[in-house]
Amino acid sequence: MRPTETEEAREVVRELREALGRAGITLPSLGLDAVTLAADPPRPLIELGRCTAATARLLAAALTPRDEGGRP
């Protein structure tokens, strides 16, 4: 049976939380947006939330491609 959009979104949140954790990043507000779950039918959006400047810097570093020497 195919997962619902809400189930799929919950799985994506879990995957993203784990991937961020492997990079040493925690987004405390990461989750599903409750308002979008209340729609009929639900159209779940993933809420990334707010973070500190230090966490934003970690995110930027994690998303910046590195050369073979490990430099951005």
Describe the structure.
It is a single chain. With 72 residues, the protein is mainly alpha-helical. It contains 3 helices and 2 strands. It has a two-stranded antiparallel sheet. The longest helix has 18 residues, at 5-22.
Structure class: mainly alpha
Fraction in beta strands? 5-15%
Strands of the biggest beta sheet: in what spatial order? Answer: 1-2
- The shape is elongated
Condensed summary:
The protein is mainly α. It has helices spanning 5-22, 34-37, 53-63, and strands spanning 31-32, 46-47. The protein has one domain (5-63).
Short key terms for the protein model shown above:
3 helices; elongated; two-stranded antiparallel ribbon; mainly alpha; 46% helix; 6% strand; 72 residues; single chain
Write the SSE topology:
Blueprint: H1 5-22, E1 31-32, H2 34-37, E2 46-47, H3 53-63
Antiparallel strand pairs: 1-2
